[in-house]
Automatic annotation (TrEMBL), chain A:
It is a multi-pass membrane protein. Belongs to the binding-protein-dependent transport system permease family. CysTW subfamily. It comes from the Bacteria. This is ABC transporter permease subunit. Keywords: Cell membrane, Membrane, Transmembrane, Transmembrane helix, Transport. It is found in: Cell membrane.
From TrEMBL, chain B:
This is Spermidine/putrescine import ATP-binding protein PotA. It comes from the Bacteria. Residues 36-266 form the ABC transporter domain. It comes from Billgrantia campisalis. Its EC number is 7.6.2.11. It catalyses: ATP + H2O + polyamine-[polyamine-binding protein]Side 1 = ADP + phosphate + polyamineSide 2 + [polyamine-binding protein]Side 1.
Length: 277, 393
């Protein structure tokens, strides 16, 4: 057998380093034992346990709802911000605006969470809203930092879009607002989808900010996982993690598949045309 | 079936009155009536003057080319006509109405972009219909007009295609159809052939002109390619540093350039610095140390007495080459062939004169493999006294 080259070995080592922990986690989710680290035979028992646990299920539902609303709101705000950063000509304070929009990317989460908590507490005292913290406050908090990510993703795409597309639309009689909705938005739609997905996962993943601004009524999935791990890791969490990995891989695979299919369609159309010519 | 009344029919009824500068056959449809007037228009970007006090009159029905190098201000001027830039000073009048402050979406002017700017998420038919939908035309009329436009640019079979499924030439046709669909008063073309390869370019130049003529639309195009401007346009304006240096028919601009810049920009030229020594009504004589001999020209140029320094310009194809010494005392020099560029249809000879000046001579290759001067041969270059042009600065 041929000796594998140095680069191949490094590649394999790198992949093992990245994916071995996840593989172990998946394997142990089928462990029959109550102890996480001791293998006692194969069993799907923890998956059933997981489905019977109302606390985890309601946390999943809460997290998904928060992630959905935060991502949607972040896409709206982030796109507006990106549009101002890229399409508006130079104006006073443009540099300040763009650095302030992107600042939450590098801001430590602890600080973001703490400052938002202070804000909500003071607002509750001053105007009586929000009366108690919960889903709405998490939603607002997640929207603030997710908007920054969306703005970065969308603005990089918007910079690539040929400005003459929008000029052509205006030249053909479409006022600026109509141009934005009929031309700009459809053209940058892939970036909006990517930004939405990014915001969704960030919101789903966030523990620190959510812990600061959440109240007694709203417990997100990371909070449940984190607190249950402190009491001792339950194999149920392994099962949950496996399901999450499965869902993410499936989504990635589907996205790849549809992209490949549309690319193949495009190539075929070009080929057909070459034959006609 | 009754023939629908197209724009081409309506415009064709209006007959031209007269033409001052006969150039090519294209100008027969041009009328004297003014369509657009550009009055003392300037554009400043942060104190940099991109367009400097431009005055132009565009006649109804003509194809007008703005020709200039990069940074000459031609694109900025075009963008002001389209409405994407507001002039810092001056007025733009379309059919007598000041449109300098009108936004692009309210102007009866359409533009074909250099990148074509076809909307990638719409089909060919939807692209062409876009402008018509903005006007809220009835659906049936839009459909009819789109079909008419597709037929005009010979793209009937491609209505359902997306832009990325089209070749470069086809995209250009769609872009042209889209900009003509609203029947604009004025069509703007921004580097219309810029995105095409050379072979396709020559083909499309003639086809685009043919389409524009059939529709009868007035057209202003911007280009840096002089061949393109001369092939397509009835009149050409040469721009440099935001100025319009010369306006005229392609022949005017080539044969009677206004100054040295135009002569050098449009085609190639041999230039000789000299000083006027004789200036009569029917001829003048210029002393040129660069040629080592005097130059005689068959017309007077009425110079002010204090401005004697001029340039004499002779085009390479009007510069002749012979092995025998030319007769007479004017307009020739001895030299050796330094280099030959064989271009197929013609050959360009680079002749180094005794004074060290490099002169270009182009000869049409009318016969195959004929006896021609070769590298290092001693030759004489000369020209007719009617061939040279006197230029200032």
């Amino acid at each position: 057998m041929r000796k594998p080259s140095f680069t191949t070995v490094m590649l394999i080592l790198g992949l093992v380093f990245l994916y071995l922990p996840m593989l172990i986690l998946v394997i142990y989710s089928f462990n029959a034992s109550r102890l996480v680290t001791v293998w006692a035979g194969f069993s799907g028992h923890w998956y059933l346990e997981l489905l019977r646990d109302p606390q985890i299920l309601s946390a999943v539902w809460t997290s998904l709802r928060i992630a959905f609303f935060s991502a949607s709101m972040a896409v709206c705000l982030g796109t507006l911000a990106a549009f101002v950063m890229v399409r508006f000509g130079r104006f006073r304070g443009k540099t300040a605006l763009s650095s302030m929009i992107t600042a939450p990317l590098v801001m430590p989460e602890v600080i973001t969470g703490l400052s938002l908590l202070l804000l909500f507490v003071h607002m509750a005292q001053l105007i009586g809203w929000p009366a108690d913290r919960g889903m709405v406050t998490i939603w607002i908090a997640h929207t603030t930092f997710c908007s920054a990510y969306v703005a970065v993703v969308v603005s990089s795409r918007l910079r690539e879009v040929d400005l003459s597309l929008e000029e052509a639309a205006m030249d053909l009689g479409a006022p600026p607002v109509k141009t934005f909705f009929q031309i700009t938005l459809p053209v940058i739609a892939p970036a909006l989808a990517a930004g939405w997905l990014l915001a969704f996962t960030l919101s789903l993943d966030d523990l620190v900010i959510a812990s600061f601004v959440s109240g007694p009524g709203a417990t997100t999935l990371p909070m449940v996982v984190f607190s249950s791990v402190r009491l001792g890791v339950s194999p149920k969490i392994n099962a949950l993690a496996t399901l999450i990995i499965l869902a993410v891989s499936l989504a990635t695979f589907l996205a790849w598949y549809f992209m490949r299919r549309s690319e193949a369609k495009r190539r075929q159309a070009l080929k057909m045309q070459a034959q006609e010519a | 079936m009754t023939q629908p009344m197209t724009l081409a029919d309506t415009q064709a009824q209006a007959r031209p009155t007269s033409e001052t500068t006969p150039s090519s056959g294209k100008s027969s449809r041009v009328q004297q009536e003014t369509l657009m007037e550009i009055r003392r228009v300037s554009k400043r970007f942060d104190e940099v003057l991109a367009v400097d006090d431009v005055n132009l009159t565009i006649r109804r029905g003509e194809i007008f080319a703005l020709l200039g190098g990069s940074g000459s201000g031609k694109s900025t001027l075009l963008r002001m006509l389209a409405g994407f830039e507001k002039p810092s000073e001056g007025q733009i009048l379309l059919e007598g109405q000041d449109i300098s402050r009108t936004p692009p979406y309210e102007r009866a002017i359409n533009m074909m972009f250099q990148s074509y700017a076809l909307f990638p998420h719409m089909t060919v038919a939807e692209n062409i219909a876009f402008g018509l939908k903005q006007d809220k035309l009835p659906k049936a009329e839009i459909r009819e007009r789109v079909a008419e436009m597709l037929k005009l640019v010979h793209m009937e079979g491609y209505a359902k295609r997306k832009p990325h499924q089209l070749s470069g030439g086809q995209r250009q046709r769609v872009a042209l159809a889209r900009s003509l669909a609203k029947r604009p008063r004025l069509l703007l073309l921004d580097e219309p052939m810029g995105a095409l390869d050379k072979k396709l370019r020559t083909e499309m130049q003639l086809e685009v002109v043919e389409i524009l003529e059939r529709v009868g639309v007035t057209c202003i195009m911007v280009t840096h390619d002089q061949e393109e401007a001369m092939t397509m346009a009835d009149r050409v304006a040469i721009m440099s540093d935001g100025w319009i240096v010369q306006v005229g028919s392609p022949m005017d601009v080539y044969e009677s350039p206004a100054n040295r810049m135009v002569a050098e920009f449009v085609g190639t030229v041999n230039l000789f610095a000299g000083e006027i020594v004789v200036d009569e009504a029917d001829h003048c004589v210029i002393d040129s140390p660069e040629l080592g001999r005097r130059i005689r020209i068959d017309h007077g140029i009425s110079t002010p007495a204090d401005e004697r320094g001029v340039w004499v310009a002779v085009r390479p194809e009007k510069t002749l080459m012979s092995r025998e010494r030319p007769a007479g005392d004017f307009n020739w020099a001895a030299g050796t062939v330094e280099d030959i560029a064989y271009l197929g249809g013609l050959s360009v000879y680079f002749v180094r004169t005794g004074q060290g000046h490099l002169v270009k001579v182009s000869l049409a290759n009318t016969t195959r493999r004929s006896e021609r001067p070769s590298w290092g041969d001693a030759v004489y270059i000369h020209w007719d006294e009617r061939s040279a042009v006197v230029l200032r600065d």
